[in-house]
């Protein structure tokens, strides 16, 4: 039986200690007492152990006759083991799981964004094998916040599997994990049941609220660090001045370039007493009754089209009599594009648009809504407070002449304008959330004794021979059951082919266990000072993109110092302080700008590559960054960073060069900064550092005197959409990039900049063709 509607799910986190610990710690903690009531997940995490998540989700798929189904299911994750039930095992002790499996190292998890299912909007998560993308499955959540929680839950489960694999804790288990998985809908037999008390951390109010409202989520339970603090990682180029305060919302203007003949950037900033997930759900919702309560301008919205779960086109109307003396009604069409960053912050871009479903019509005057961006970012809760807060910023471009006139002559007239109505949306959100206690109050964490100690599986409850059943096996097909709601046997679930690709998530904590925790030398000790330096003559190394002569030169590259970037300081682990970056450790010697038919890996081995020249082979070490850009045609931007001495193997860079892919994924960091260009593109790219191995697929090639990193930007739908926007303006952009290896331990701080590059107004048509 299909689900009648999709309005809400519930997510629960049960945690036994923290996310990383020994097998003995896991077993000891699983049989410990319930602990003190009211302990939060963040406090428990520090004590070692394994996370446990459970809650209600929707299982999506297609049965054997091609009929799509959507079933409400209870999902339970403990360590690396996952089970799916028809009912809550807490309320039905002894119930057997209908699906179960193991989250293994080859499991990939991708957020597909928003999708309409059975007349309701859900947020879909896709699972598939990195080795075979035909093996896949999907679950869905009612809110973006819950989707984020489940992404983090599976990330922790994957960490647990990688810990066991990297430490070789069980040879038999390790061998079976590496075996090819079997997607036959077989149900592994249980060896025995676990016993003992369990500590539960519940998030959400239970299935009885599924048809009423969005569940509440604990905001401070997050994975081991997609990102850090709230500060930006690039020196701010805008200079904002507060010009008005309305209903607790500050309105700023950008005064960094007062003589500009272009539009003026203004923004409204307010603090909302709710999580970023909650505010995003309110903002993205098109329900007319809800929008009437906070949105004075775009309350009447209609969805025209939706693409890839992160992009849609909307049509709206409004009566201008509340704003101006105009008599005719107005309508507008605009697009929304949104994505969530590694720090959990949401960015929404809104552009004026046209759509064939809504051409200009009589009775309405077509108006273009000002281009704008929204940023919704969580704020750290005060000490001892469990109240979630976020800061909401809306930025838009206003005609400069009009803005100056309103500001100088009569501010009261500004209150009758469309830009003012747009800026007032932040105040509307703030007041609406403040008047809705259900949105503001985060569910409290309760620690209780488990009612189903005989229904939970511990790591030793599975036969070693069964470990190769990856969890996407458990959700790839409709559950076989005699229940009426599961008519007909189903085969593997098949998602529609819509260009969805993989996101790579590997925690740094896993890789750290595989490496010795000896003291890592700093930047000054990264290169072997006992070896005389070689003289790097730039004239010996030529790339297809030339080095810029001055700031006016275009379609070129230069290598700026690191003063435009902020990196982790020596005391970062204590106070989150960041410092201005210094000169790069490695020297950028050349840049290649290639046009390719398909993504090109292993560029360093290509006969055209400078590393295959006599001069290139004499260099002590070269770091090759191959940024693979999806387009028509595809492009590769290849950066060559050279060291004049060998790298100290005991240094952090040395560990990165010769470490595992898991370690590299968890440490390879890039900081972007658009120095010159359209402000909307700047907001889309952002100024936050990104762990590329967690955002997109990275491949590593270590040979001879180089390490090549192939960065597949097209492997993430979000990154693909952002790079598509960038390419539309690339001929007018000046972009700075900084490359780092992230420091996560005190001995690895302060960080240092490995290399930088400035790309000045690239011209795609000048890319040199590379045959691969």
UniProtKB/TrEMBL annotation:
Gene3D superfamilies, A to Z: 3.30.530.20
Domain named START is located at: 240-425
Q: Where is the composition biased (Polar residues)?
A: 1-11
The record's region (Disordered) falls at 1-45, 477-498
- Here the segments flagged for biased composition (Low complexity) are 29-38
Q: Which GO MF terms does the UniProt record name?
A: lipid binding
Query: What's the protein called, per UniProt?
Result: START domain-containing protein
Species source reads Linum tenue
């Amino acid at each position: 039986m299909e689900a009648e509607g999709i309005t809400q799910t519930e997510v629960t986190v049960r945690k036994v200690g923290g996310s990383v610990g020994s097998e003995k710690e896991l077993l000891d903690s699983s049989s410990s007492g319930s602990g003190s009531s009211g302990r939060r997940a963040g406090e428990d995490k520090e004590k070692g152990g394994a996370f446990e998540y459970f809650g209600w989700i929707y299982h999506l798929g297609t049965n054997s006759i091609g009929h799509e189904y959507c079933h409400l299911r209870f999902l339970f994750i403990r360590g690396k083991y996952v089970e799916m039930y028809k009912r809550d095992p807490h309320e039905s002790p002894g119930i057997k799981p209908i699906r179960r499996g193991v989250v293994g190292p080859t499991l990939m998890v991708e957020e597909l964004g928003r999708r309409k299912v059975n007349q309701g909007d859900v947020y879909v998560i896709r699972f598939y094998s990195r080795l075979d993308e035909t093996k896949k499955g999907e679950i869905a959540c009612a809110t973006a916040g819950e989707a984020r929680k489940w992404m983090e839950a599976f990330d922790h489960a994957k960490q647990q599997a990688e810990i066991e694999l990297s430490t070789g804790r069980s040879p038999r288990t390790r061998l079976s994990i590496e075996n090819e998985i079997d997607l036959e809908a077989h149900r592994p037999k249980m060896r025995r049941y676990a016993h003992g008390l369990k500590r539960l951390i519940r998030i959400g109010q239970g299935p009885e609220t599924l048809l009423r409202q969005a569940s509440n989520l604990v905001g401070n339970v997050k994975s081991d660090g997609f990102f850090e603090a709230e500060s930006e990682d690039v020196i701010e180029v805008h200079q904002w001045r507060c010009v008005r305060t309305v209903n607790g919302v500050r309105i700023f203007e950008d005064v960094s370039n007062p003589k500009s003949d272009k539009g003026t950037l203004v923004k409204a900033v307010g603090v909302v007493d709710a999580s970023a997930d909650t505010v995003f759900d309110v903002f993205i919702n098109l329900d007319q009754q809800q929008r009437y309560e906070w949105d004075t301008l775009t309350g009447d919205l209609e969805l025209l089209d939706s693409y890839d779960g992160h992009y849609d086109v909307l049509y709206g109307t409004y009566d201008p009599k509340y704003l101006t003396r105009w008599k005719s009604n107005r309508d507008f069409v605009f697009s929304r594009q949104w994505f969530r960053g590694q720090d959990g912050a949401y960015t929404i871009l809104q552009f004026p648009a046209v759509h064939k479903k809504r051409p200009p019509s009589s009775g309405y005057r077509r108006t273009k809504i000002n281009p704008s961006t929204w940023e919704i970012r969580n704020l750290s809760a005060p000490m001892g407070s469990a109240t979630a807060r976020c800061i909401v910023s809306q930025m838009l471009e206003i005609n400069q002449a009009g803005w100056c006139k309103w500001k100088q002559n009569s501010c009261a007239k500004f209150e009758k304008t469309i830009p003012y109505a747009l800026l007032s949306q932040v105040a509307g959100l703030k007041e609406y959330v403040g008047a809705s206690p259900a949105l503001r109050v985060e569910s409290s964490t309760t620690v209780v004794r488990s009612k189903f100690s005989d229904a939970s599986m511990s790591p030793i409850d599975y036969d070693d021979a069964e470990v190769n059943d990856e969890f996407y096996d458990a959700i790839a097909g409709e559950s076989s059951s005699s229940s009426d709601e599961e008519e007909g046997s189903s085969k593997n679930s098949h998602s529609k082919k819509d260009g969805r690709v993989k996101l790579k998530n590997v925690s740094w904590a896993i890789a750290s266990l595989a490496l010795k925790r000896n003291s890592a030398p700093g930047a000054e000790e990264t290169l072997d000072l006992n070896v005389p330096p070689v003289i790097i003559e730039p004239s010996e190394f030529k790339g297809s993109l030339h080095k810029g002569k001055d700031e006016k030169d275009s379609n070129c590259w230069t290598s700026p110092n690191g003063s435009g970037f902020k990196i982790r300081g020596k005391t970062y682990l204590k106070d989150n302080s960041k410092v201005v970056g210094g000169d790069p450790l490695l020297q950028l010697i050349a840049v290649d700008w290639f046009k390719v038919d398909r993504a090109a890996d292993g560029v360093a081995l290509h006969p055209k590559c400078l590393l295959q020249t006599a001069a290139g082979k004499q260099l002590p070490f070269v770091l090759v960054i191959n940024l693979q850009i999806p387009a028509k045609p595809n492009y590769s931007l290849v950066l060559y960073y050279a060291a004049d001495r060998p790298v100290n193997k005991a240094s952090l860079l040395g560990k990165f060069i010769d470490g595992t892919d898991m370690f590299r994924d968890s440490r390879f960091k890039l900081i972007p900064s658009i120095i010159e260009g359209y402000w909307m593109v700047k907001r889309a790219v952002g100024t936050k550092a990104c762990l590329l191995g967690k955002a997109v697929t990275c491949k590593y090639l270590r040979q001879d005197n180089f390490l090549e990193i192939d960065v597949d930007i097209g492997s993430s739908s979000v990154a693909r959409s952002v790079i598509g926007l960038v390419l539309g303006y690339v001929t007018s952009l000046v972009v700075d990039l900084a490359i780092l290896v992230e420091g996560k331990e005190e001995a690895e701080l302060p960080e240092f900049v490995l290399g930088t590059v400035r790309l000045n107004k690239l011209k795609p048509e000048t890319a040199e063709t590379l045959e691969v």
